[in-house]
Every structure is written in structure tokens, then in C-alpha cells.
Amino acid sequence: MQSLNQLMAANVLHVLPEAVWCIFGALLMLFQPFLKSRRALTAVAMIGAGGGTLVTFATQRGAAFSGVIQFDTFSLFFHWLVGLVAFLVILGSDSYLEREHLEPAEPLAWACSPPPRNC
Known about the structure:
By secondary structure, the chain is mostly helical. Helices cover 67% and strands 5% of the residues.
């Protein structure tokens, strides 16, 4: 029988992509007062979007948290689709934010936010 730590680690791997996206979104909002460079914030956002998407390789297929979360082929496709869209939005938003004279962190943080998990 598996120990509680092993079960919890296996369960946490199922939500790791969302955790990475959330952490990088929060970091963007925290870094905004200190990093006034749009390029630096865009780089952090792109790393977060790409990192959260690539973490799906570490995620195991199957159910987690007593069947509440299911990670299957459709979920993998959905994670890759959301990650690609977030990456493209971040890539295109730099020139838009500069043209409209908007602060960079909030729209970039929203792009790094995870999608709803109940799909």
C-alpha cells in the first residue's frame, strides 16, 4: 500500500500545469512595480505559459483526488491548446500594450491564468 506522501505527490502532479500558470501569473503582478521593462515582463509571461504547458508531460494519465480530476487525452489536448493560445496572446500583446500606453502586468497575468478544470 502506498504511503500518504506518495498518494499526495501523485495527486499534485495532476494539477501541476495549473499551479505553474497561477504562480507565474502572481509573479507577474508582484514584479510589475519593480520591473518597468515591458520586455522583461513579457519574457516572464512567456516562460510561465511555456513552462505550464510543458509540465503536462510530467502529468500522469488517470484520476486524482478521489476521481474529482480526470487527466486523459482530451485534457492533454485542452492544456496544449490553452498553452498555445496564451503564448500567442502574450507574443502579440507586447506591441498592443505599448501602442495603447497600458501597464503590462495585468493583461499578461490574465493570459497566464489557468483555464477552468471542470471540462
